[in-house]
Design goal:
alpha/beta, Elongation Factor Tu (Ef-tu), domain 3, five-stranded parallel sheet
Length: 286
């Protein structure tokens, strides 16, 4: 579904409660976590859904607003006054025009990263299906998040271990970044996943660029193929569910990796088709 096809007519006022940089200062990537507060009680968002943000548009192009989607990065909470608080994870983006070579600021990401506490903004949505844990408490999960794609898994895993105490399935979280400085929620400044390391079923595996500090593709192959035997065993189990979040480009990269793990592209395509039909392969890509 293209962005222009989303319904943005229902709009809600939100206030910035706080904004915090969660990548280290020496990292070239600025990623911020924003806590937003919505007073309207009819706005209800769940884990795995996206919220819409309407940034000011480019007036010179006759654009009233600039619409973008962001994943919920934690379990939504209610204040004592009944106001909804939502966390989102935003990477400040700049783009190089492939024809002119000029650099342009990403409209929505720079708008959000520049907001400060008590600033207001307009939200729409929520959109998409919530990430629902499998009904079977022994079902295994393979979670794959690239960059800010890890945000919905932070909320999902928190929900899993806090609200489903009898969950027994294996959970393998693969998180990718070009360098260790980009491992959001998994660095020395903010390691939210460390609280689950004592869970026997949970393990987090980092996938980094094969040439750290270079602007290179994330090396999913090394991280996942080194676990190929376990991954294929899990994928072959009819109770295993896979959740993928991040940029759309990750889809082709993962298909190539899983084809090697499966032994052939045809074998992988058949298994993935079966998982999609059984709703055991869920993608949240943008």
């Amino acid at each position: 579904m293209r962005l222009q096809e989303y319904d943005i007519n229902n709009r809600y006022n939100a206030r910035v409660v706080s904004t915090e940089r969660i990548t280290r200062e020496e990292s070239p990537e600025e990623v911020r976590e924003l806590i937003l507060e919505v007073a309207d009680g009819s706005y209800n968002v769940k884990v795995g859904q996206n919220i819409g943000v309407l940034a000011p548009g480019q007036k010179e192009f006759g654009q009233e607003s600039h619409f973008r989607l962001y994943s919920v990065a934690d379990l939504p909470e209610k204040t004592d006054q009944g106001q909804l608080q939502i966390r989102i994870c935003v990477r400040r983006c700049n783009y190089i025009d492939e024809f002119s070579g000029e650099e342009y600021k990403g409209v929505a990401s720079n708008y959000l990263c520049d907001l400060r506490a008590d600033d207001t903004l307009t939200l729409t949505g929520p959109y998409g299906h919530a990430f629902q844990p499998p009904a079977e408490p022994e079902a295994s999960l393979i979670l794959i998040g690239a960059g800010t794609g890890i945000a919905p898994f932070r909320a999902f895993i928190k929900h899993l271990y806090q609200n489903i105490p009898d969950y027994k399935g294996r959970v393998r979280l693969f998180h990718g970044g070009r360098t260790g400085l980009e491992l959001l929620y998994m660095n020395d400044r903010r390691n939210d996943f460390a609280r689950y390391y004592d869970e026997e079923t949970f393990e987090a595996i980092a996938a980094l660029s094969s040439r750290p500090h270079w602007s290179d593709m994330i090396d999913w192959g090394h991280a996942m193929e080194s676990r190929g035997k376990e991954l294929w065993e899990m994928l072959s189990d009819a109770k295993t569910h896979v959740y993928v979040a991040g940029l759309e480009i990750i889809r082709d990269e993962l298909d190539a990796v899983f084809a090697r793990i499966a032994g052939s592209a045809e074998r992988w395509k058949q298994l993935k088709t079966e998982m999609e039909a059984d709703q055991r392969w869920i993608e949240l890509l943008y």
